[in-house]
Amino acid sequence: MDTTGYQTVAAGSGAGIALVVIGGLVVVGLLIWAFRFGITVMQRESATPRHSGHPKPPPSGPVHETRQQREPNEVPDAGETGRRLSPHELSSGSRRSDDQSRPRWDSGSSGSFGSGGSGGG
Predict the structure, then answer these.
(1) Whether the Cβ atoms of residue 96 and residue 66 lie closer than 8 Å to each other
(2) Are 95 and 73 in contact (CB under 8 A)?
(3) At 95, phi and psi to the nearest 5?
(4) Does residue 93 contact residue 73 with C-beta atoms inside 8 Å?
(5) 3 state DSSP class of 90
(6) pLDDT tens-place string over residues 49-98
(7) What is the rounded distance in angstroms from the CA atom of residue 117 to the CA atom of residue 121?
(8) Contact criterion met (CB below 8 Å) for 68 and 96
(9) C-beta of residue 75 within 8 angstroms of C-beta of residue 90
């Protein structure tokens, strides 16, 4: 009976198992190192602010939202200034409107959805 083939297979599987075990130990070692490295990084960071360090509302109470109607600023024509405006010379884009009444939709219009028709198709 020839046992050389069995011995070769047994030796190969032992080496494979050893490689898997060594690879697993390397992975576990890397995970432990990464965990310890994360802890040292967290310890170097500044502490979380205490409750007293957070901002507080003003004594007059919370600030409420203000609603106002805005209208666009007119961009001067190149003929008025004699040259084109550069982007940094443009204003913020809008100003407070003199008419503060809230715009309403026309009757029979559906606003921004559809054409305002009967919709029955």
Answers:
(1) no
(2) yes
(3) -140, 170
(4) yes
(5) coil
(6) 888 888 888 888 877 777 888 888 777 777 766 777 787 777 667 788 88
(7) 9
(8) yes
(9) yes
Do 85 and 76 form a contact (C-beta atoms < 8 A)?
A: yes
DSSP class of residue 54? S
Token digits for 33?
A: 């190192």
- Contact criterion met (CB below 8 Å) for 95 and 71: yes
d(CA 68, CA 94): 12
The tokens 């009757």 sit on which residue?
Answer: 107
Residue 10: per-residue pLDDT: 64
pTM of the model: 0.35
Task: Compute the C-alpha angle 91/94/95, nearest 5°.
Answer: 105
Q: Which amino acid is at 84?
A: R
CA-CA distance, 102 to 68, in Å (whole number)? 9
Q: Given the DSSP bridges, would you call strands 94-96 and 70-72 parallel, antiparallel or unpaired?
A: antiparallel
